[in-house]
Design brief:
Radius of gyration: 18 Å
Strand order of the largest sheet: 1-2-3-4-5
CATH topology: TIM Barrel
CATH architecture: Alpha-Beta Barrel
Oligomer: single chain
Number of strands: 5
Number of helices: 8
CATH superfamily: Divalent-metal-dependent TIM barrel enzymes
Number of domains: 1
Shape: globular
Strand content: 5-15%
Helix content: 40-55%
């Protein structure tokens, strides 16, 4: 969408279907070039000046229509489409897709096997909490996991509400074999911000070798 105009994705925005399809085609080209098998299909925001409840039905219909179109296109590329609930309490009050339950309902209605849930535990904790239950409940739908500490959205070992060693063990016990995306704002630089990962590997008995500096 047009970020300068306040758009944050288009998949659920009525009247923007043509722009969504254009953006999707470009995203597929980029994903194909870099070998990325998953694309986040961002729902978008409730239009300015409209009431969320009043437009909910139309936005859901638009979202499902666009998701089906995207899924059929992505299936030709052996790719997966992801939908991510983003909290509307702190991060984005106008974002349309807010909870795992809402996402699960829409995925069921869309009815395409290559559409999955991108579960960011930062947003999930803010909206629902009860992470263990939610991970177990929605695990069959999950196509990607993202993490950040709550409430500061910093490294997993920064002060906050979430016990990430427990969460990582839970994901392993559930059989999760995908990537865990670190979508947080480092308190310092990137390398310093990955110190928690080295410490976690050591706590799990994993030997990590390699330079801490990039080589060109």
């Amino acid at each position: 969408g047009d970020q300068e105009a306040g758009e944050m994705g288009l998949a659920a925005v009525p009247g923007r279907q043509a722009a969504f399809r254009q953006g999707l085609a470009a995203a597929v080209q980029y994903a194909r070039a870099v070998g990325c098998p998953r694309i986040h299909l961002m729902a978008g925001r409730v239009p300015l000046g409209t009431d969320r409840v009043a437009v909910a039905s139309e936005m859901e219909t638009t979202f499902i229509e666009n998701l089906r179109y995207a899924a059929d296109l992505l299936a030709q590329e052996d790719m997966i489409g992801l939908v991510e609930p983003i909290n509307n309490r702190i991060t984005d009050p106008r974002y349309y897709l807010n909870t795992p339950n809402q996402a699960a309902t829409i995925l069921e209605k869309a009815g395409r096997p290559n559409l999955k849930l991108q579960l960011d535990l930062f947003h999930c904790q803010i909206m629902d909490g009860n992470l263990s239950h939610n991970l177990e409940t929605y695990f069959p739908l999950i196509g990607h996991i993202q993490i950040a500490q709550v409430p500061g959205r910093h490294e997993p070992d920064s002060p906050g509400e979430l016990n990430f060693p427990y969460i990582f063990k839970l994901l392993e016990s559930l059989g999760y074999t995908g990537y865990v995306g670190c979508e947080y704002a480092p308190k310092g630089d990137t390398l310093e911000g990955l110190g928690w990962l080295r410490s976690y590997w050591e706590s799990q008995g994993v030997q990590h070798s390699g330079s801490s500096k990039a080589t060109v």
